[in-house]
Design goal:
4 strands, four-stranded mixed β-sheet, single chain
């Protein structure tokens, strides 16, 4: 996925969090905010150091990016995915189903 689809600036991430429109469970939290300036969705991923060593954090970020790349989003939104330490034991299939449920609850995708 192109870098145009990523939220990089800290000020933009803070705006998404301050909007306080979020859904979550024990493994992930998805914050969203409407974005009318770009013609597509944008996203950011956050993993704390409590998750584990850098290899584990990078692995889960790659997996979450793969889920986002394969998902068809229907709204023009910015969203932030916060990965909680409890998701350390999840497989790729479990990550996929859990994130799709959260995206549907956040009304970012259909279904």
């Amino acid at each position: 996925m192109k870098k145009d689809y990523r939220v990089k600036r800290n000020t933009e991430i803070v705006k998404i969090i301050n909007k306080r429109d979020s859904v979550g469970d024990g493994f992930f939290v998805v914050y969203k905010a409407n974005n009318l300036h770009t013609g597509h969705f944008r996203y950011a991923i956050s993993v704390s150091k409590k998750f584990g060593i850098a290899v584990q954090r990078n692995l889960v970020k790659r997996r979450v990016r793969e889920v986002v790349d394969a998902t068809k989003f229907n709204d023009i939104v910015d969203f932030l995915i916060v990965i909680k330490p409890a998701s350390n034991k999840l497989s790729f299939a479990e990550i996929t189903t859990d994130l799709h449920k959260l995206f549907a609850r956040a009304k970012i995708i259909e279904g």
